[in-house]
Amino acid sequence: xxGPQFRLPAHVPMGRRIDREAPLAFTFNxxxxxGYAGDTLASALLAYGAFPLARSFKYHRPxxxxxxxxxxxxxxxQLEAGGYSQPNLRATQVELYSGLTAASVNAWPSVDFDMMxxxxxxxxxxxxxxxxxxFMGGGFGAGRWxxxxxxxxxRAAGFGxxxxxxxxxxxxRMNAHCDVLVVGGGPAGLSAASIAASRGCRVILAxxxxxxxxxxxxxxxxxxxxxxxxxxxATLDKLDAAGDVTVLRRTTVAGxxxxxxxxxxxxxxxxxxxxxxxxxxxxxxxxxxxxxxxxAAGAHERPYAFPNNDxxxxxxxxxxxxxxxxxxxxxxxxxxxxxxxxxxxxxxxMLADAGIPVTVADARETPPASLAMEAEHAGVTVESGFAISxxxxxxxxxxxxxxxxxxxxxxSGAPRLVETDLVGVSGGxxxxxxxxxxRRAKPVWNESQACFVPDGLSALGVRAAGAVTGAESLADCxxxxxxxxxxxxxxxxxxxxSRKPALKADDSAGPAPIQxxxxxxxxxxxxxxxxxxxxxxxxxxxxxxxxxARENYRSVEHLKRYTTLGMGTDQGKTANVTGLALMGMETGxxxxxxxxxxxxxxxxxxxxxxLAGRDRGALFDPVRETPMFDWHAANGAVFEDVGxxxxxxxxxxxxxxxxxxxxxxxxxxxxxxxVMDASTLGKIDLKGPDVATLLNRIYTNDWSKLRVGRARYGxxxxxxxxxFDDGVTARLGDEHYVMTTxxxxxxxxxxxxxxxxxxxxxxxxxxxxxxxxxxxxATVAGPEARALVSRLDSDIDWSDEAFPHMxxxxxxxxxxxxxxFRVSFSGEASWEINVPAHRGLALWQALIDGGATPYGxxxxxxxxxxxxxIIVGQETxxxxxxxxxxxxxxxxxxxxxxxxxxxxxxxxxxxDRKHLVGLLPLDRxxxxxxxxxxxxxxxxxxxxxxxxxxxxxxxxPSLNGGFALALLKNGRNRMGDTVHILKLxxxxxxxxxxxxxxxxxxxxxxxx
Amino acid sequence: xQRYSIISLARNALTGHRNWPQAWRSPAPKLxxxxxxxxxxxxxxxxxxxxxxxxxxxxxxxxxKGWIGGGNTGRNTTIIRSNYLWDESAAIYEKSLxxxxxxxxxxxxxxxxxxxxxxNLAHNEHDLKEMSRRVRAIRGNGVDSEILSPAEIxxxxxxxxxxxxxxYPILGASLQRRGGVARHDxxxxxxxxxxxDRGVDIIQNCEVTGIDRxxxxxxxxxxxxxxxAAGKVGVVVAGHASVLADMAGFxxxxxxxxxxxxxxxxxxxxxxxxxxxxxxxxxxSQSDKGELVIGAGIDSFNSYxxxxxxxxxxxxxxxxxxxxxxxSRLRLMRSWGGIVDTCPDASPIxxxxxxxxxxxxxxxxxxxxxxxxxxxxxxxxTIARDEPHPINAPFSLDRFTTGALIxxxxxxxxxx
Amino acid sequence: xxxxxxxxxxxxxxxxxxxxxxxxxARPLEPEALSDAEWADYVFLRTNAKGRFKExxxxxxxxxxxxxMVRDTVTHEHGETGVFGGFEPDAVG
Lengths: 1008, 416, 93
Hints:
heterotrimer; A: alpha+beta; Ubiquitin-like (UB roll); FAD/NAD(P)-binding domain; seven-stranded mixed sheet; 21% helix; elongated; C: mainly beta; Folate-binding fold; four-stranded antiparallel sheet; 1 helix; globular
């Protein structure tokens, strides 16, 4: 690549936004280039010429840079490598930094020679939606063809590549509130922010570029007789000086949501590349709640289509102006500008000032006389009533043709050849309505300006100003910005007075009317040679739009989905309106009648990592640990996740297997004494005179007669009658109860109680307070449990007489007040000792020192299953009633409670529902698979008649073999039957149906 | 109907594709039809197709208030699977999957069914138990399902993180190899083209504003294009079922919620199957275009606005990059919302109603797309015979009175 | 993302709240007197209104109080909130 020959020499008074004193070397496709601080990757590359740097999505045609901003469809690059690798960045938005490395995407083997270009030559059989019409299967059987072709299509599609290693960068979230959020730092946005700030508003101004200024950054605008950029600098100084103003540069407001909530992505360390200072996050995601929003998002120039309009060297007209004015880059020696509106003349004037020959082809028969005269005076050739009708060249513009143009886009007469190597095209402007659309403000078609403009915003607390309203003159933008800022301040309740600044722009006369022009391409048979692209990224042509119309994909949404128009990474910013206007022409509708598709967030893409923010790794979800956690971790505990809690599953000693550990723990409880950390169980303090009434309504059983000092087990159901939680509630005083819940449902049950108390039974005088984390709980169980707890430093009488099963006692344990419940989930004599959380570890240590064996959740499961005690969520799944699990004894007939009425429903009252039963494998060595499906005929071919499933299954050291609990259809009437439990790899295990109590059936051990 | 094939494509190339016929007509509505289907989504169009194709009833209109396929058909994450827990669900979703497997040929329209497998991850002991139960039940119903170890998962999905150090590590997964994705729009268009070819009138931009009844029997509908008489009316309007029920004078056990989905920018292939996780809430696949297609959770509140809240998306992304750390630098390109009608038991309603000749097909929640052909097939039977087919009889409205619910809350990664 | 006006705490982000569905669904005083259909109506059937909808919310990560709010389910515009009655905390010792 020869040098940066298209950078204008320093003496030309352009390119004031780059610093020629600060050259930056970078690499593109392996070659070294040099740009300047202030350049984008695109401007730095264009200084070397408008060469192909990308390949298109479908046809793999060579593509160059098309725009100078967020709307870029073509110039996608893969930035950097390794963990920093970033696919699909728009070169037009990448700020240049020293050492930047970028490469083309979607080309093989290279962007200069891409094998997939074959798609272009085969394109006659690949019109829009061709894939719906083939690969249906043919003679090869259902879908076989598609199976064969899909991998090829997948490989050909996509642009860049995902990094191969995890992201080394860090992302942060910021939350902010303000009176007025101003979106866009162009003339309207600056004007709005300025007045809002002067009226005492807390203002946030967000601008997506490296520096605010918007269109004024091209450097050719004048405000109050001085360069507009002086006004920009002065305004920014003023905003910086104001107290409550935040100017966010490089910050793209990505989405607007209900009640003026906005998301914005701020590029922070990102612009320094991999060498960014370590303290900087790569991006900050702002979450802004604004009282009022001023939408000054500007407009995107749109092209009109013509054959081979995708050739590198064709770009948007205003992009030519920006590259020249802002970066001193004009990637051509002779420029052709095609336009149908006034904006090209400003570009022409700038180029002419730089001494570059320019031809303007203005589709309007009579361009504004003043503009034309001024242009011609500057040496610009103006061809009125002409439009670009073809571009010559393949990988580079080698010339162009212009033709006399009729209002319907047809040309007349022979085309004229224009010598050019850089073509700028302007078909008008599309206001950037995206954010308005996020708030459901429907765009309306403005016939005279030939563009969609926002409508119905102010009722939402959003005010549009500047080019986003269709305003074309700088004067209008400044004035609208002022009005929007003033009104927003008032609506935000700020009444401080300030003077209206008197600003005079260089264009108060206003523009002449546009002459709508969408495509210069014959729709007549034979047509023109060469493809005319509407959507450059997705390779949607004018013909594709016509095909969609022909096949009745006429709704704007069908057009989009059938042709993929506007579905690329640019979301059709320069394509959508042209496409729908062409659809309108095909079907005799105005663009307004065709309508737009809905713009959806984000405005421009945001890295997933920025959305995830710090919610990763250890911070993905909080870990909840009990006060005894460190002891568990230090003593061989294998943890399981139960909700957010880490609970010991089992404690492995030495080289012991998990199974051996569980066996040992079970035996310890059955033969000696075990201790389990039950701190995770939900604990809710209930106080007030009406607690018993509440419990009666919430639980299925009767609570009227529970005495102080006693505890009772209860089942909780939803109104559909299905079990959703269970636990023991103890009465500690006349008006004081404490309820325990399952670990996973603690918060749910608390919320459940509150909901009923507040919304349905406000007359009940009950306070429900979660005390789960206030207490640590150790469950001491086993025949030697009493002996152990009796040795604790305590004033509690642990004798069976004073402290019988289902008693609840408060007293002192190890010098602190404790709540102790004699309840058993293991079938052994068992005490649940609750002490203030900070004493949990001491209590635990004392019990261990006293000889208790710690046991985990799995041993607990075995112990309770041997007793036939259910675990909610394991024996139940939201379809199981108390009767189903054989707990009809816990359902009161005498009172109403949540869910009771549902038991009379025909299906719920069926006697042959699934019942909880026990299963004993005939082969005592077998442990049935949990989840195993139960059948009577193991030889039946699928679909088989499944009668239920194994809910819990373990090896029991006490029973010396496998046993299980199961839900079995009509199970209570199948006692003694043999059923079969299907194995995954075929075959089945026979088992006998038994009562679901396997150990100590008369419960004698409870009193041990 | 002009048949689609590589040969017809080549032939049309010679004439610059100027002779392709309309995929479906846009006729003016007649004054009367044997059957009016309200709702031109995938389910409604499939219903019309099967009414004509299987029951010989072709004097049918499909009334669509917007553009066909514009509701949840065109907004979902295109996942197809039949790995449901309960027998009743397995029957209807498996019927649907089997119809999908032959659909491109049947409709002569490539719906791009890609049976690349659907993986459901397990992250804790409870998940593993649930997975075991589910896989065994699914296989008992003759549907394919298997259990994978973390190492096997990694082999299938190299981009996934199976480190035990994850906050919620991957302990296993179930895999339905016949599951996958299809092109959602193509399903609607294919059914539309097939139904149209059999004489069904597809009327777009025709909003139903009332349901006419006489003596407890439906007689037709009021529309934005005038009244249309009908012997029978089938309502298939996901996201609007309660509104139509209200017109007919009854209520449904349905709440409508926004459900969001999103896509990344297109990248080269990096994910070859569908990955779903209930516990941390992820579901993701990669489209043929190269976008990662990601489903978020539903917003908790009732809504008819096709957009959701931002925090739902943030939560979703945290989970996604936990499971796929290399996706962190990929970029969210577009997010959107649909409205899902959820039932208390997370199962649909395909049913006769209190009004004779009026049928409702609704309540598919987050899982309607995968059911499209099966739902249409069963609903067509229900309308044609005025009685449900055995595979949709369990999904009748009266289950909410009898208590015979089909609780599939564990079925989707989305908490209903 | 709504900005919900908790009648006790003022405007707070939606993420602080939990949703409680349709308001004013009174639990029948005598469920046993209802037919299966009437019971199903209470348990399952909902208005699911399109447009103005009275619903209930709880300020979970705030004061913990339930309240009602009227919201438009199409535009998400929301207006008046209402409080539930209740006993005075002083009534409890």
